[in-house]
Amino acid sequence: MSELKELAAEAKHELLTHIIPFWRGMRDDKFGGYYGYLSYDLALDEKAEKGCILNSRITWFFANAYLLYKDGGISEEECEAAGFKGEDLLAEAKHGYEFLREHCIDKEYGGIFWSLNYDGTPLDTTKHTYNQAFCIYALSSYYDAAGDKEALELAFSLFDIIEERCTDEIGYLEAFTRDFKPESNEKLSENGVLADKTMNTLLHVFEAYTELYRVTKNEKVGKRLMWIMDTFADKVYNPVKQRQEVFFDADYNTILDLHSYGHDIETAWLMDRGVDVLNNEHYREKMTAITETLTSRIYQVAFDGHSLANECDRGVVNAHRVWWVQAETVVGFLNGYERNTGHSEYCDAALAEWEFIKTYVVDKRNGSEWFWEVNEDGSPILDRPIVEPWKCPYHNGRMCIEVIRRIGA
Question: Among 25-39, 178-192, 282-296, where is mean pLDDT lowest?
Fold first, then answer.
């Protein structure tokens, strides 16, 4: 299909000429890692907090960009035309990995900090399960890219921490002090509630374990993937409302009527990816019924023909178009179309979403990347930074990589 080939070519151009150069430019060669803040007005704060999630995600991004190059998804000639060499991608991933290893990971108590000062000293020493998961995600991909067994050993040490210190008998707990004493979960609670458990943490532990299992086929990791899928199906997924619940008490009772559109479309393809990596027919059958329903429901209630609203909180829709939600929409609908080509509306939705992204969400200003969020009409919301601890190339860079891998360009 020519429109899909054009999408892949444009995603490759965005990756090579915009996203990769921008994030290479955020590299801090003096103190390590990547700078933590660029304002909407493109003012770089070299002394801003460095989020460990940000640095894990950047490390993951460059490792996967290198793997795409290594697998032939982008050529050396294309890299050089964009101003860098293919091996530079691995060098960026190594730069991120070394910062994680030397500064973000706590050598005294284990686990990864929430954030650091600009100079690599600890700032927020909270240990959050979500954060441990993203470091596993980064370390697993870096191991695949570089063959560095030390990175894999660190990934398994974090896996052990999550399984031994961050769980109870029914699920994953959230926030802890530096020495892993439970504390309240402000960091992943929103919309006026304080959650004991969240869909978001469970999803991204699943995502991290999928990557760890992909590169190792470790049986213990595989069993936890199956356990997480059971938990999603039995406790997080709401079959009546055809959505995931988001915030829970300690016993997985939902505590807020919230439909997170972006998380549902992201979950649909991440669950499908996990099923493919695990390659277990029982879970393929169990989870496919859910992921197909999630994709269909989001298409029906949240997609307006060109872009995706953010969420619906107690019946009130937040119609802002958030950068990560738009990126996940492209992949989610493309995934839905690939798995059932009879649903051509999903293909059309992915193409339309990309048109919205490149027209309104990609920031055309020199020295910028993507806007954090725009209004429904595409006008940018001016008080959101271009870079901060949550704003990184994980979603939009991954979208480009997924499109190229799935379609070819």
Answer: 178-192
